[in-house]
Amino acid sequence: MYEKVSVAKGQLSMTTLSAICSIVTTLYSTHETGSYISYGQICDIVPYLVQQLWEFLSPLSPVFHVEAVRCFWLLHSISWNDRIVEAAITSLMIPSTTSSFSHRTSVDRVEKFFVLWNHSYQAGSSRSASRVIWEYPFDQTPGRDSQSAYRLSLLERPLFISLDLLASGPGRAYSMVKQWVQDPSTAYHVLDILTSKLSEFQYFRPDISIPSGIDAKAGLDDGDQCLYLFKAVLNTILALNHAGWSALTSKISPNCSKQALQTDVEDRSSLQSTIAQLSVRVLKERQQISTNMGLRGEDLQEVALFVLHQLLLGPGADSLYPLSLDTILIEQLSSCLDRNETTLQSAIIDAILPSLKIRFAHDTRELSAAMASKNQHRRSSLEALSNISRLSFTGERSEKDYIISQLPQPPSQLLDCLLKGIRAKSSRPMIDKWVHFLTECLPLYLGVIFQVLLKLVECLCKEINQSYKELQLMFQQTESASRNRSEHVTIALLTALENCIATAHDRLLLEESHGSATKTPDQPQSFFGNMVSGVFTAEASQPRSATANDRLTVLLCFQDAVRLCYSIWAWGDSGRGKDTRDSDCQASFQYTSLRMRNRSRRILEHLFTAETLECLETLIDLWRTSLRGANRISGRSVFNLLHTLEGSRPKVAIPAVFNAIYSRTNPAALDPSRKSAMMSHLTEAELAAFLVMYARSLDEDVLDEIWLDCTTFLRDVLSNPFPHRQILSRLLEFAAILGEKMEHTTFGEDQRAKRDLGDILLRLLTAISTSKPIGASQDQSPKSRAVQNPDNQVSSLSKDLVIGPDDVYSILSSIMPALTTSFDADRIASAMSNISTNILAPLFHSRLFPQNINKTMLDILQQMSKIPSASRYWRKDVGDALNDPKFFGMKLNLVKSNWLGLLRQWTLTDKERLPELLSRLSQPSSAGIMFGVGASEARLEADRKSQLNLRRIALLILAADEDHFSGDLSGLQQKLEDLLAATHISSPSSATRAEVYMVLRALVLKTSTIHLAPFWPLINTELQEVVYTIAPGRESETYNPYCLLQACKLLETLLLTSPDDFQLQEWLFVTDTIDIIYPPDRWEAVALADEIALALGTTKNGSTAHLHETGERDDEFNRLWLGTDLSRETAKDEIVDRLLRPFFTRLSIHAFESTYSLGSPELLACQDDLLADLFNDFTIAS
Predict the structure, then answer these.
(1) CA separation, residue 784 to residues 684, 729, 809 (Å)
(2) Which domain of life does the protein's organism represent (predicted)?
(3) CA-to-CA distance for 53 and 27, rounded, in angstroms?
(4) Which of 254, 493, 639, 946 has CB atoms 3.0–4.6 Å from 988's, for a disulfide?
């Protein structure tokens, strides 16, 4: 029968297969086992029968499904000890011919296994199965019944093969297995099998001690199997839907040994609880697992944490509350920090958060039940908790106090763990996770936030300061500085600090709302609410003493946060620390400092929105400290910050300063809600000095926003001036500043406002003379004036400077123009004159010119050039700059972006610019200077002046429109001819020839053919003479290497632009026929360039090397060949060898190719190269 079955071709019928299976089973089991059929024959025939039966499990047709499954179990009943049927099915699901290294099965094979699984529970539970188990007992897993073991002996390996598809990612196979697992019955049996397999390992058997000397290979194998099973559990849980989760939460696990899990919970636990206990067991045995498995042990613990995390997020997670998972996980996290372990921190934190929420929800339900039993009409605490974030409690105060005091508290170890995590170096790689952890834990501390706030803020500020200093050190010592993520750590910890203070401030507002009336909509409702707009509006009454203490705690934290954020924001402001930074990383420093400034600025926005007065006083204190330390840059940074923040805009900051002054001069007259907490030790004199400086720094446009608040405050002071007698002179100066700003705005057109301000000024003068003796503080004038203006260069500023009020004489002297000035019709002209005189002119006359000029300054000058009434101011500035001998040291990018446009506008508005420059050019003369004292110096000075004027002429020609100077070309031609007649001993000498060639290059680029015609004789003659002298033996003292280079550049420009008149003379310089490419026999060069190339010869610095140096490609012939930085960097003695020899070697070829390549010449490149030569001041005589 075996032979017939093995050689049978095609698929046998189900009737035949069923008969064969029955016969084989009966013959093997009749009388004595193996008397008719041996076990060896069974082992041979069963795989063939399984292969035939496997085809009947196709899901496409349900016919013979039950019969085939019964045959499987019949065959399994006689071979289950060796799992022959299971092995055959496994080989069918993963055939040996597969080319994949993943050993994953296919979709159709999985579908067949699902059919076998769905029908197996009936077949495997039959009486015959029970009889077989009784007749052929075998060793089974403790805690698992024989029926389950028998069923698993057939389905285990195919099940794992199917579950492996859950790890394959989205796809058809993954979706099919996921849908199959989502059935509650299937989910239960699958997870029950997995947990039963996990409980077999020694890690989960407390009754079996783990020997310390366990075989390494055996421990590693067990660990790998355990890791595989945990991954299977995780993938299965991730695939469950709501119905599948019911198998975890409602079904009871009858198989897994409860003795294998030490727990205090009841024995009849759900699968969810069982899996959670298994995961916890892995964490508790982490040291032994890590010893046996190494890095794989960390993978096992991480997967166990992922499983625990999913269980805590799933439905029915409240049932895990008795396990006290939050306490266990906090202990594990603290242990990781103690051992400086980083790998598991993120996974533990992810698991802690839902476990804490489970505890909080459980304790909240108990509180709700207690509240409900105490008073049926009282709101539940759950409703109260949901409203805490909105800060909208209403009702009796005792009820709210009771709710807050009875709020559930997190575990006592949590705060220590949080502080330890913030300080630990091992938490730096995942600092964002720790910040998120802290943020999520803050609502749990709502009832005791004031008790833990100082510890948290102190720890955060300390760590932020440390990481910030490390970041600063990185840019000071780029080579030796440690690499420790200090930038990212600082920003992350700033977020944590912001969240802590925000939570505490929300809690404070809630507490203060109990004793006050309902706040109006324009008052701050939370940390991120809107700022007060009606500063002088009455608010609540004085809070109770406990609330005042809580407010003091919060404001101390506000003060620390403002100081810290300001120090970070001021990093790099106005060049602070520039001398100690590595200049090589300037760009990175600017990017990093900008990022840090933006983050600290956002935090300061929130702080100012919440507590404007206290934050402003903290900044004023910083400003005062900077003045005492003679650090004017830091003092200006405070104002820069105030102008940057939206929460400290003038509409808010000015009334806040008024409140701070009143809190010190006349607190009894101020509403309690507007009083300062006096956290900063500032005097009214210091506040008034700050008010004056802040007012001076404001734009005129904000005057209408602060006008009403300012006049109200000043009238209030004048109604009772005696308490403010020490600062009346400062207030007079402040009022005068308002008058100055009124002059520059349309608000000044309001005659009533002008009359009101005049009245206030007169009354202030009267109050000063009556309330304070004139001359009492006259000796304080010099010192106080130094305090008033931080930009004033005062060398007498000392560290012991104490800010005091100025005397009335100095104040009157400073405000007299504001008292007497009226509106002028030519205000725009005056403003432009001020900009020209005080801003632009000093820049152009500075000893740092032109290095102190940037694009922004030139943009201002360009805007002035568009204003008719400012014409004479900007024209004077442009003329002064152009006539400065250092002008040609200007940065080239500024010339291209700004100066060309300015000079173009300048030439359009002033027609006499070029003639005036031509008049400066003197005719060369040799009389009286060939010999004598100072002859060489006089010649150099004449050369320098001529070179500068020629460069100015060339620059104006380039900047102007085409043919703009056509009427002045005859005079220019005459001047150039005179200069070309100079010799090396004349004054000016022939050293000016290079600049003459630059002027000719400019003319070629910006002059049309008809106007350029008179210059061709001059150009052709000069070029021939210059090129002729390049050949060895023909050198002349008249032509220095720079002159030769500029002459070649002129020739190059002519060849590229190819003017019509030059085309007739081109053959004199280059060979313009095909002969240069394919020279005929006995061909002799006629062109001057080819003659020079032959005379110079070819060396290692020949054409090929030059092409590579200049970056020219063979397919580009319309580009400059000498127009590179190499032409300006080459030493004077190497110009001929490095530049001109390869230039002439290839000149005719390039000229021919550029002519017939039909490409457009790069005129812009020609202009850029000429500009680069003009602004190369190293070639100017000195």
Answers:
(1) 15, 12, 12
(2) Eukaryota
(3) 20
(4) 946
d(CA 262, CA 281): 9
CA atoms of 496 and 491, how far apart (whole Å): 9
Q: How many helices (H) and strands (E) does the chain have?
A: 55, 0
CB count within 10 Å of CB 693 equals 21
Q: Report which of 237, 162, 239, 231 is spatially closest to residue 197, judged by C-alpha positions.
A: 231
- Domain assignment present for residue 75? The answer is yes
Asked if the structure places residue 538 within a domain, the reply is no
DSSP at 852: T
Which pTM was predicted? 0.62
Instruction: Give the rounded distance of the alpha carbon of 724 from its chain centre.
Output: 49
Same domain, 891 and 767: no
User: Please, where are the H alpha helices in 124-215?
Assistant: 127-135, 146-163, 172-181, 184-199
Identify whether the C-beta of residue 725 lies closer than 8 Å to the C-beta of residue 758.
no
Which of 1041, 1035, 1026, 1030 lies closest to 1097, judged by CA? 1030
865, 805: one domain? no
Q: What are phi and psi for residue 925, nearest 5 degrees?
A: -145, 140
**Same domain for 819 and 807?**
yes
Determine, yes or no, domain membership for 208. Answer: yes
Q: Which long-range contacts (CB under 8 A, 24 or more apart) does 936-944 make?
A: 938/987, 939/985, 939/986, 939/987, 939/988, 939/989, 940/1181, 940/1182, 942/987, 942/988, 942/989, 943/987, 943/988, 943/989, 943/991, 943/992, 943/1181, 944/885, 944/1180, 944/1181, 944/1182
Could you tell me if 330 and 351 are in contact, meaning their C-beta atoms sit under 8 angstroms apart?
A: no
Q: Map tokens 């990781």 to a residue.
A: 336
Domain interval for residue 247 = 182-314
**Six token digits for residue 134:** 């009784």
What does the alpha-carbon distance between residue 2 and residue 95 come to, in Å, rounded to a whole number?
Answer: 23
**409 — phi, psi (to 5°)?**
-105, 145
| 571 in a structural domain | no
SS3 label, residue 151? helix
Which tokens sit at 826? 């030519």
What does the alpha-carbon distance between residue 989 and residue 992 come to, in Å, rounded to a whole number? 6
Query: What is the total count of domains within the chain?
Result: 5
Kindly list the averaged pLDDT for each block of 10 residues, start to end, along the chain of length 1182: 61 88 84 69 88 90 89 88 89 70 77 90 51 50 65 88 88 90 90 88 59 48 84 93 85 48 51 90 77 72 93 89 91 92 92 92 79 56 40 42 67 93 92 94 89 94 93 80 82 95 92 60 41 37 68 93 93 58 77 90 93 93 81 78 90 94 88 84 90 91 90 93 88 86 74 78 75 45 41 37 49 58 48 66 86 80 79 89 92 91 90 89 71 72 91 93 89 91 85 91 91 90 86 81 89 85 78 70 71 68 41 52 82 84 79 71 86 89 76
In this structure, what are the phi and psi dihedrals at residue 796, rounded to the nearest 5 degrees?
Answer: -85, 10
Tell me the β-bridge partners of 270: 252
HSE-CB for 758 with a 13 A CA cutoff: 11
Question: DSSP letters along 385-431, please?
Answer: HHHHTTT---S-HHHHHHHHHT-----HHHHHHHHHHHH-GGGGGGH
Pair (686, 814) in one structural domain: yes
